[in-house]
From TrEMBL:
UniProtKB keywords: Signal
Domain of life of the organism encoding this protein: Bacteria
PROSITE patterns: PROKAR_LIPOPROTEIN
The protein's name: ABC-type nitrate/sulfonate/bicarbonate transport system substrate-binding protein
SUPFAM superfamilies reported for this sequence: Periplasmic binding protein-like II (SSF53850)
Annotated source species: Paenibacillus sediminis
InterPro entries the record matches: NMT1/THI5, SsuA/THI5
Leader sequence residues: 1-27
Domain SsuA/THI5-like stretches: 59-272
Entries under Gene3D superfamilies matching the protein: Periplasmic binding protein-like II (3.40.190.10)
């Protein structure tokens, strides 16, 4: 569409020039054309450059961002948004340092970071309820956390991950010492369960849907089903205290457009999937479409509006972490998240 508009403008300018060569002066028309062109250039210059960094490679957790960019919602708010993948330090570090104004993170990460002085603030819950859990191929016979005994778990060494695994095993009558821990590194889940492990922690919306497509049945143990405190927000949209203090209008504008992007994805999962595929053509198109269909109704779920966060969710999970000595001190929950920059619900 942009190319078409510029082509039309070029034709108009050529006609003006040709007309200007005739015996009848057209100075007023030339002046108007110049002013219009100047106005368009000025409008382009006034767009504010904004960077949002993903937590991982692009997937359906991020669809609303790509929709907002593709549909022009960010431009309507005066923003030129660039969506980038994280550097070696991760998304949190890029946002905290000011390298990006916004990023994708997780409640556990922000909770731990804030108790250590990292000034990140969650401004929206991308998915209303935790869709992650421990998954195993059905033939491994893992139907409850007690069945983790004697099995090989593939993880990445996070203290939160180990605490969650240990708690679920012990609270369901199992012996955590009988679970063998294997660091998966960058291994793909499907490769790892064939080669090294029996189960791993996944997001069902992506890896679980891929398992369905591969016709590889899973037993999925969602962590939220075993403890209310584990129904925390993951992933979330974050910014820094500095951005909020210095440019609150930027945060409001970004969230207005982003909210529209996710609302579009909620209402139009197929079209939203096509937008993500167009933006990231290397993705498996069938996986994206199936994942989007599963995830779209779960973005907002039972919340009054997309992105809404509850204090009790932040409090319950931070208390859970503190009780297990995974936080240096209790979290000041009121400073960790805000709903102030979400557009008003309908």
């Amino acid at each position: 569409m942009r190319n078409a508009k510029w082509f039309i403008m070029l034709i108009v300018c050529m006609l003006v020039i040709v007309t200007g060569c005739s015996s009848t002066p057209k100075a007023d028309n030339n002046s108007s054309s110049s002013q219009a062109t100047g106005s368009n250039k000025q409008a382009a210059k006034t767009l504010k450059d904004v960077k949002v960094v993903l937590d991982w490679t692009p997937n359906t957790n991020h669809t609303g961002l790509y929709v907002a960019k593709d549909q022009g919602y960010y431009k309507e708010e005066g923003l030129n948004v660039e969506i980038v993948q994280p550097g070696s330090g991760g998304a949190d570090a890029m946002v905290a340092s000011g390298e990006a104004q916004f990023g994708i993170s997780y409640q556990e990460s922000v909770t731990q970071g804030r108790t250590q002085g990292v000034p990140l603030v969650s401004i929206a819950a991308i998915i209303q309820h935790n869709t992650s859990g421990f998954a195993a191929p059905a033939d491994r016979g893992i139907k409850s956390p007690k069945d983790f005994e004697g099995k090989k778990y593939g993880g990445w060494g996070s203290p939160v991950e180990e605490a969650m695994l240990k708690t679920l095993v012990e609270e369901n009558g199992g012996d955590y010492s009988k679970v063998k821990y294997i660091n998966m590194g960058d291994a793909d889940y499907f490769t790892a369960v064939k080669r090294d492990i029996d189960f791993a922690w996944i997001y069902y919306a992506w890896t679980g849907i891929e398992a369905e497509q591969r016709n590889q049945p899973l037993n999925m143990l969602y962590v939220k089903d075993y403890d209310k405190a584990l129904d925390y927000y993951t992933p979330i949209l974050v910014t820094s205290e500095k951005v909020i203090a210095q440019d609150p209008e930027l945060v409001k504008a970004f969230m207005r457009a982003t909210s529209k992007g996710y609302q579009y994805a909620i209402q139009n999962p197929e079209k939203a999937a096509d937008i993500l595929i167009k933006a990231v053509p290397d993705l498996n198109a069938e996986l994206v479409k199936a994942s989007q269909k599963w995830l779209s109704p779960r973005y907002q779920d039972d919340a009054a509006r997309w992105g809404e966060q509850k204090k009790e969710v932040w409090q319950n999970f931070s208390d859970w972490l503190y009780k297990r000595k995974l936080l240096d001190k209790p979290l000041d929950v009121d400073k960790a998240f805000t709903n102030d920059y979400l557009p008003a619900g309908k």
